[in-house]
Amino acid sequence: MRVISLWQPWAELIARGLKTWETRSWPVKQFGEVAIHAAKRKFRDEDMTREARMQLLMDDVDPYWLKYGAVLCVCDIVACVQAETGRNHISERDRLYGDWSDERFGWRLENVRRLPEPLALKGHQGFFYWPEGKRILEGAF
Q: What is the mean pLDDT of residues 59-79?
């Protein structure tokens, strides 16, 4: 199973269905199922704008309770668009929770399936392959 590690709170926001676009400096080339892993890097206020932190409060996401070093959910990447085009067609929440600067890309995430409990896993940069992931997650949803 393909996995991507994200810093918190972005992994949690995807798991809750509150962040429906992931933004990156590179386009995704392979669509389909991917597990979302919360990296071990701890949340820092300075990583988000004031407006995004206010949205976190409105979305009832308390950084104190975030999980780290674990798979939180599985979702499907269904599209990839250039930021210059995509930012004109997204919600205010997705604008706040992503970096829609020029020359970046937005990946559309759908069909989020949250795990009943976070599953500990060592993360890596970029996409990585979790050989036993499909078997372990079978029946989890």
A: 96
> Residue 136 falls within a domain, yes or no?
no
At residue 118, what is the residue type? Answer: P
Residue that is written with structure tokens 């104190």 in the block = 64
Of 87, 125, 132, residue with least CA distance to 105: 87
Q: Is 5 exposed, middle or buried (0-12, 13-18, 19+ CB in 10 A)?
A: buried
Model-level pTM? Answer: 0.94
Residue 30 near residue 83 (C-beta atoms within 8 A): no
Q: With CA atoms as reference, report the closest residue to 126 among 15, 20, 34.
A: 34
Could you give the angle at the alpha carbon of 29 between the alpha carbons of 3 and 73, nearest 5°?
25
Per-residue model confidence as pLDDT tens digits over 83-117: 999 999 999 999 999 999 999 999 999 999 999 99
pLDDT at 1 over 90: yes
Which secondary-structure segment (H or E) carries 14? helix 10-15
Is residue 140 situated within a structural domain?
Answer: no
- Is 30 part of any domain? yes
| H-state helical runs in 59-114 | 83-86, 92-96
